[in-house]
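In the current project phase, the collection of sequences with tokenised folds has grown. A sample record is quoted in full directly below:
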Amino acid sequence: MPERLLVKKAVASVLFLELAATACGHHKHRSLPSENASFAPRAKTANCHIENKLADRLCTPGAVFAGITVAKLCVKGYASSVRDVPEFEKKAVYKEYGITTHRPYQYEVDHLVSLELGGSNSIANLWPEAASPTPGYHQKDKVENYLHQQVCAGKIALAKAQQEEVTNWLAIYQQIKNN
């Protein structure tokens, strides 16, 4: 059985057990991921601009899956199991940011709050991130992995990591680059 399928089955099993525990009253405050936990309302859906390599916070305020926990995030394969941005949604993101054409790999529709930190696939959490000039989306991937490791190791609270990623991932990149 391919590893990816095993990981998806493992994550599905964890989520099923969480649901069963909630139904039995063992975890009254836990819920399955949903798209309804936005950091702020979207104030714009057009004329969005990337400034200093950061998403337009009026268009992309960030959003997380409701009820996400560190225990769920730190299961190997969690991010790939919840990654689901349909092509029509990617096209909508490009349109909001005024990108009408682009070369392959010039941009990536990226999650402002990374999936590794509980970010959702909601359009409120998506933006077109350029590959270059550096730092671009490849470097943000390093920030996402670093913050995920820090959260799973208990070195930083999940909410703080999410906030740092949303407000200025570039500062975190410079910090890990210089260490």
Observations:
- The two ends are 40 Å apart (CA to CA).
- DSSP finds six helices and four strands in the chain.
